[in-house]
Amino acid sequence: MLVELVGVTKFPRSPWLAQIRTPFGGAAVRWCGDQAAKPGKYDVEWTVDEDITWGQNAKSAVGSGPEVRPGGHCIVLRGRLNLTVDGAAVLELDGTQVLLDLTDPLPEGIAGTWVELFIERVRVALYPYDL
User: Fold this and answer.
1) Beta-strand pair 74-83/58-60
2) What percent of the chain has pLDDT over 70?
3) Cα angle 92-93-95, degrees, rounded to a multiple of 5
4) What is the pLDDT of residues 69-106, one digit of tens each?
């Protein structure tokens, strides 16, 4: 996914954080690229390093469409939740697929719907890459 990097900062006892913008919102998330990266556009892979538990850090979305926004000490990712043929969970975020680890099977009828994930910002990481 193409994101706009606004800046990279480091606070005491935290990893490097990138302030990013997308066409559907922005937030600060863990940056796993060059710490001296300059502002600009970067192709990135998203990862979520937190197990997803329905009803705790995942719920049905009120709206539809992708969104990335701050939510206190977490970020909110809104996307369409799908299951692969082998049962893995994937959040589709504007054409980008983010692999998720589930603690339990999803409730009946949730696959294919819009959901919101509430993830601690240091557990969402961006890995820049060159095409």
Assistant:
1) unpaired
2) 100
3) 75
4) 998 889 999 999 998 888 789 999 999 999 999 999 88
* CA angle 50–88–5, rounded 5-degree value: 50
DSSP conformation class of 37:
P
Within a 10 A sphere around the Cβ of 53, how many other Cβ atoms? 11
Q: Is the pTM of this model over 0.85?
A: yes
Output the CA torsion 107→113→119→121 (10° steps). 170
What tens digit of pLDDT does each residue of 11-34 get? 888 899 999 999 999 999 999 999
What Å distances lie between residue 109 and 44, 83, 88, 96, CA to CA?
31, 11, 16, 22
DSSP string for residues in 17-32: EEEEEETTEEEEEEE-
Distance CA 81, CA 23 (A): 20
Burial class (CB in 10 A: 0-12, 13-18, 19+), 13: exposed
Q: By three-state DSSP, how is residue 71 classified?
A: strand
**DSSP-assigned letter for residue 61:** -
